Amino acid sequence: MAVARPAEVTGIMRLWTLHPKYLDAKGLVALWREALLAQEVLRGKTRGYKHHPQLFRFAKTDHPPATLAAYLKVVQAEAGQRGYKFNVAKIGRRRFRGRLKETRGQLLYEWRHLKRKLKKRDPRRFRDFVSVKIPESHPLFRIVSGEVRAWEKVKQQSRKAGRLRD
Q1: Which of 39, 57, 135, 166 has the fewest CB atoms within 10 Å, measured from its CB?
Q2: Which one, of 10, 14, 12, 29, lies nearest residue 122 by Cα?
Q3: Percent helix, strand and coil across the chain, each rounded to 5?
Q4: Each residue of 119-162: pLDDT tens digit?
Q5: What is the tens place of the pLDDT at every residue in 51-88?
């Protein structure tokens, strides 16, 4: 009998470095739900996901729930521009006012990952963005030189492909 791995290590959560404008409808709704879950984890209100790699960059800030609230506000604004009614009351009131450093390698890795998803799930959206070489990041992040992050679950060849060539 196989033993199921705990949800906190399966890698099903994705808190994108990419600007949410690139996500298809399914991806945007999933991001909203996953970020709300992450907010609850960082508030200490859940038992699972506490060690999920997608939370590392938020958890290391001085005020993790406030940082996630700032992240969520941008997701909610993007949803509103598309006509979705994401409940703003679910976002924590405190806001992180700074920016988190994230690497260009991480951003580009995520971009390749999303384009593969879009090609299958939303070919029209894929065509709209296929010519974008370097995507815009979520405004919470300031992009710096660097490779795909060590916490990202990737194959070694993908990690090398994410290297920034200066």
Answers
A1: 166
A2: 29
A3: 50, 5, 45
A4: 999 999 999 999 999 999 999 999 999 999 998 888 655 445 55
A5: 778 888 998 999 999 999 999 999 999 999 999 999 99
Domain boundaries defined on the chain: 15-161
SS3 state of residue 102: strand
Query: Is 89:66 a contact under the CB 8 Å cutoff?
Result: no
Cβ within 8 Å of residue 101, ≥6 positions away: 141, 142, 144
Distances (CA, A) of 22 to 1, 28, 88: 41, 9, 21
- C-alpha span between 34 and 129 (Å, rounded): 24
What is d(CA 65, CA 86) in angstroms, rounded to the nearest whole number?
A: 18
Which two three-digit tokens encode residue 105?
Answer: 């390698």
Six-digit token string for 160: 């090398």
Tokens (6 digits) for 124: 């029209």
Q: Which residue has the tokens 């509103």?
A: 80
Task: Evaluate whether 76 touches 34 at the Cβ level (below 8 Å).
Answer: no
Angle between helices 25-42 and 64-81 (to 10 degrees): 160
Does residue 8 contact residue 47 with C-beta atoms inside 8 Å?
A: no
